[in-house]
């Protein structure tokens, strides 16, 4: 799924979140008292909405596999909403001075309205993506089992939004691009060294056609790497290419998210700690030296799940 499509789904979710809130307040208080109730709910629910969107993201509801509206997707969708409701309730009751309301009924009605509207929005979006006029016109160049896997997957999942054309060699590429109005090209890594293909791609620069190597595209679609396509040069490129700004941003987001989730799940964390202490002797926290980024060791902390003497004969495999 392209970033544009993900943004469209995200924006739709945000609009539906606020739309569901508006409908909830009109249903509860009527149009005459809507303005007053809306301003009272706007600030606390806006914070809740951020958490809902993050949870949707963590549940992979913005990825290709969740665009197919099947039983598995609906189950994940419903489960994510339930998790969001639980988190919202915890926040409302844990920080009453900030939220200044405990909307049990409103939250229930809101969740029901949002669930119906958002699921309907995604179903409509799938139908729109399936329509050929809005599909990304994709040309895949090369011949391998991995390419066949990608082609079959995209053809069997039209909701992802790709109209696929396959070409095994570099012959007549320029004509195929013009005929099919291609806007994205996927190519095997070794073919990027082909001088004929390089010249064709160079001529395509003004047309702003996106050119993606097969490994990157495969990873985007399947969220995993095609091991048979990897070679030494791929590892060198990935390992030696440093993205300092990305690393800093990711570290910041990870820390902030971990801090927020720690606060949200503090009651659960304390409960687990109490149960560990109650049911077994020894420390609540288990720590271990592990290897992190750049082979630097760090201390890893987790709740102890083993007996105190579980490793008296050294590290043990679990089953």
From TrEMBL:
Gene Ontology molecular functions: phosphotransferase activity, for other substituted phosphate groups
Keyword list, A-Z: Cell membrane, Membrane, Transferase, Transmembrane, Transmembrane helix
Entry's transmembrane regions: 7-27, 39-59, 71-95, 107-130, 252-276
Record's signal peptide: none
Keyword Cell membrane recorded: yes
Keyword Oxidoreductase: no
GO cellular component: plasma membrane
Domain Bacterial sugar transferase span(s) in chain numbering: 250-316
Locations listed in the record: Cell membrane
InterPro entries, per the entry: Bact_transf
Family assignment from sequence similarity: Belongs to the bacterial sugar transferase family.
Protein name per the record: Bacterial sugar transferase domain-containing protein
């Amino acid at each position: 799924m392209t970033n544009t499509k993900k943004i469209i789904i995200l924006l739709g979710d945000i609009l539906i979140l606020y739309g569901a809130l508006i409908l909830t307040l009109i249903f509860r208080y009527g149009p005459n008292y809507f303005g007053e109730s809306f301003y009272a709910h706007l600030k606390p629910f806006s914070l809740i909405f951020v958490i809902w969107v993050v949870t949707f993201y963590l549940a992979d509801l913005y990825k290709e596999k969740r665009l197919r509206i099947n039983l598995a997707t609906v189950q994940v969708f419903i489960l994510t909403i339930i998790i969001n409701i639980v988190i919202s309730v915890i926040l409302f009751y844990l920080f009453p001075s900030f939220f200044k309301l405990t909307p049990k009924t409103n939250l229930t009605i809101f969740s029901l309205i949002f669930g119906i509207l958002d699921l309907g929005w995604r179903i409509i979006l799938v139908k729109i993506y399936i329509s050929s006029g809005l599909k990304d016109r994709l040309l895949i160049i090369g011949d391998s089992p991995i390419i066949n896997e990608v082609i079959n997957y995209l053809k069997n999942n039209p909701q992802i939004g790709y109209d696929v054309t396959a070409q095994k060699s570099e012959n007549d590429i320029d004509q195929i691009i013009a005929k099919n109005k291609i806007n994205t090209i996927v190519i095997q890594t070794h073919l990027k060294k082909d001088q004929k293909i390089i010249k064709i791609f160079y001529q395509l620069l003004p047309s702003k056609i996106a050119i993606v190597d097969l490994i990157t595209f495969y990873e985007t679609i399947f969220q995993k790497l095609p091991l048979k396509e990897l070679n030494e040069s791929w590892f060198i490129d990935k390992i030696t290419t440093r993205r300092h700004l990305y690393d800093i941003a990711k570290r910041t987001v990870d820390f902030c998210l971990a801090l927020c989730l720690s606060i949200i799940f503090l009651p659960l964390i304390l409960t687990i700690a109490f149960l560990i202490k109650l049911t077994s002797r020894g420390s609540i926290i288990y720590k271990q030296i592990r290897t992190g980024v750049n082979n630097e060791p760090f201390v890893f902390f987790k709740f102890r799940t083993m007996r105190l003497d579980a490793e008296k004969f050294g590290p043990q495999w679990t089953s």
